[in-house]
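Q: Could you fold this chain for me?
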Amino acid sequence: MKPASPLILTINGGSSSIKFALFEAADSLQRILAGGIERIGLTGATLRVKGSQPQDNFTRPVSATNHTVAVGALMDWIGERLGHDALTAVGHRVVHGGPKYSDPQLITRQMVEDLRQLTPFDPEHLPEEILLTEALHRRFPDLPQVACFDTAFHHDLPRVARVLPIPRRYEAQGVRRYGFHGLSYAFLMGELSRLAGVEAARGRVILAHLGNGASLAAVHEGKPVDTSMGFTPTAGVPMSTRCGDLDPGLVWYLARAEHMNAKQFNEMISFQSGLLGISETSSDMRDLLDRETQDVRAAEAIAVFCYQVKKWIGSFAAALGGLDTLVFAGGIGENAPPVRARICAGLEFLGVELDDKQNLANEGVLSASTSRVAVRVIHTDEEQMIARAVCGKLGLGTPIQEGNPHHATN
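A: Sure. Below is the predicted structure, expressed as structure tokens.
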């Protein structure tokens, strides 16, 4: 039996995981529960759920030999918990929309074929995301599914920021700067407007989404001006295992020196580089901060990360003609005061001054009273953006905000 209020499942498929959240769309979006299936395709796969009811807080082993099996295990549990016809719709985070897709779209057979053609753009994410949509369609053929594209926020970048300096003929093939973390950036801009006012959100804003994946975006008058990620999510600042920007001549050097082919090179820059590559021990910033006084490699990984983020802030301030607001978000941006402090140190010439106590306390406003630039921490919520998009696309109403922003799943 269908529930009185629409229930929306959001799906975020990674290379070896599925994150999900379940929302009730009444007068406002209420997050009922959230969780994920981890270690897909590996031994020891688990289903983790967190919610407000006692039965919704557990971690248990599941069979998850691939994404199709994993999403089946998730739907089995949702069926047991809520009933097999409980869902109203599913919203998917789709990392790459290519040149064709930007706005949220109902997933159709034609779209799936289009996304297949885009897999060379994003071979790490798109194949699994396609498998998830197909598995759900086989199980629930009448259940609407909506794709929400992580490139959408940056779709209308100014041409000077969008065009890559390679032979022009590649642009016709869709090769351009796309940018990612768009769902996060859209949410952050909405929250900035709510917290600081419309004028602040229309000012010169730099958003720093710093997590396992890390990127920055420059925004002016509410519109994207530039972003650090490029054609793929590998570009920009160093990340947990991604390298960020590199001299492209390194491809030719490694091909000659180590007989490295393109696939091996992509494996290295995507999964063996960044914080992990420099530290040689961990891709997790928390581990590195714990070890930095005893391990010079950990200290150097942190230093490189902070230095590169600082450089991008400076370059985006130049592109914006100044800076009014700097926002930190993501796992590192929201929870690592030492990293924020090191990034901001030396940016006084831009008007950035942190209040040390507020920074250590992870308060919403980090800037000192004398700072010309407002520095904020905003908890990002990609799942809520997906749920909102589904509501809007299917005419379920578009709840402005989540009913309980301090819910245990946040």
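A (continued): Residues 296-320 form the longest helix (25 residues).
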